[in-house]
């Protein structure tokens, strides 16, 4: 029995009631959970302040003071405990609003206490609310001197009612380590520990909770971060290895007339070097007899669809069918139009299948698909319906994978006896660290260069009081025959947020750009699908010059004539969203512009976001800054991944460590794919056990 799977009820000092509230409030159920509830910061408890030196700008202070008096004052809702304390330089007032009865009983007038908390001032009097207090004694002072850094743990108001504030959790953790530190077994091979000069696992756990000094704390953090990233990559790369062993793939042995004819006679532009590189990688993948699983990252407009089409033509040349699955009808239709325009009529049969496809058209489509006459099918999740049967599906392209569930994607695999090759595409630039973690079991390709002839979008930041200049610029662009998007963050006015809203925006635009000279389309999420499509089509056809919209246009609208994107309240949008919106323009040969409107009140992060947008068009650079600002758990689509539940490592700041861990795992699997060598038995055991305790990490 792994001791770390013991329920917290059995920990000395916890008991039934405390164990229940720890589980409910923090999700801590057993010894392992408590030991992996790490401090979020540390406080130097060796320094003492005199009362006269306290000022409200200090974060936390520690004072030696004698209790002079205590008194419960106020009635019901205003009831509070006020304790007066004093040292040789002045008086410090302590106040409690909760847990009054219990605290009042424990405080003894005339006794000297070590008082610790956040200082404030009330009526010119130094004050502390809800401080930590400990009776002064030489032994206490000696302990304070030995433990320079005191851990601070996350707690809640409910936990504090059970005396489980940071100090209470610290005591339970200390008891647990005292009992079971010897049971924390090693889970990394000795040669890795020696190579990276890591401290032992037991030492790391002791020093992350109770560091003897700052150096040991750093060593503990380094060890636990490396371990976390290493085990994550071990799991991902082992899954990839198992996948290649388990799933054989169709061999695309030839490049035939479909590919060659398209490449030499129909392709209207020269492929960029990154596009050629990705095609070569896909070509190599599909010749190995193993199912391909590749992620293709590329900014909006970088030419991913052309690469997908040419890969599908290789599949067709080898007697297979291919399909593209997109998350929305707008995006599926756009892919269909792009592919159809590239191949032209009569070259190869391409069809579109969405929820809107009429029943009689579906019937014909199903027949052609089953006979093999239909070579390329593009659609939404309608593709995965059971009645959609391919004769011989060999190549699948999934666009914006994070919008589909695992089950949806696997249904496409099951459309053939030998699973088709899979190319996952995303226009959301993912930082390298995040890609290695989220998609660590896929091979990754990147298109980081725009096609020739595309001019970089010029991004400008204007404040609200410069709006007349923006109106003048808009009129000038419209006079040149261009079209303009204006995006708002909200549909209706919010009482909580002082935002420019869509309805106000339409009123202002109608005044500044009146009929009949100017026409405006309006699109937002609450419109019926038919009305939305009608408004979109008016804009696409050039019947309206301005589209006022919410972020429903973020993905999937391609209007080459639209050259200006104006984003209202740009400070309210995330970086990746701003970048996606900017990608709606710049699709033609003309110079395009993105104008970011904001108030003068900008937060620190808001200013960084807008400055970043003005400075660079590089989606990968933007995604790295976004990761640093927001953290990995908040980036699009990553919350559901499960692999990002990192306790100590941080993908934004621990990139170098992640690359080292990944490289080490690759070297291990290259030498010992079955983890059979004696020195790797500790890793092999980690995969065999179902035990998630601290003795071993559950990583499979």
Automatic annotation (TrEMBL):
EC number: 5.6.2.4
Keywords on record: ATP-binding, DNA damage, DNA recombination, DNA repair, DNA-binding, Helicase, Hydrolase, Isomerase, Nucleotide-binding
Reaction it catalyzes: ATP + H2O = ADP + phosphate + H(+); Couples ATP hydrolysis with the unwinding of duplex DNA by translocating in the 3'-5' direction
All residue ranges annotated as the Helicase ATP-binding domain in the record: 285-447
Origin: domain of life: Bacteria
Family matches, as SUPFAM superfamilies: Nucleic acid-binding proteins, P-loop containing nucleoside triphosphate hydrolases
SMART domains: DEXDc (SM00487), HELICc (SM00490)
GO MF annotation list: helicase activity
Enzyme class, UniProt record, top EC level: isomerase
CDD domains per UniProt: DEXHc_RecG, RecG_wedge_OBF
Helicase C-terminal domain span: 466-633
InterPro entries from the UniProt entry: ATP-dep_DNA_helicase_RecG (IPR004609), DEAD/DEAH_box_helicase_dom (IPR011545), Helicase_ATP-bd (IPR014001), Helicase_C-like (IPR001650), NA-bd_OB-fold (IPR012340), P-loop_NTPase (IPR027417), RecG/Mfd (IPR047112), RecG_dom3_C (IPR045562)
Pfam families (alphabetical): DEAD (PF00270), Helicase_C (PF00271), RecG_dom3_C (PF19833), RecG_wedge (PF17191)
UniProt family annotation: Belongs to the helicase family. RecG subfamily.
Role played: Plays a critical role in recombination and DNA repair. Helps process Holliday junction intermediates to mature products by catalyzing branch migration. Has replication fork regression activity, unwinds stalled or blocked replication forks to make a HJ that can be resolved. Has a DNA unwinding activity characteristic of a DNA helicase with 3'-5' polarity.
Stored PANTHER family: ATP-DEPENDENT DNA HELICASE HOMOLOG RECG, CHLOROPLASTIC
The protein's name: ATP-dependent DNA helicase RecG
Record organism: Mucilaginibacter dorajii
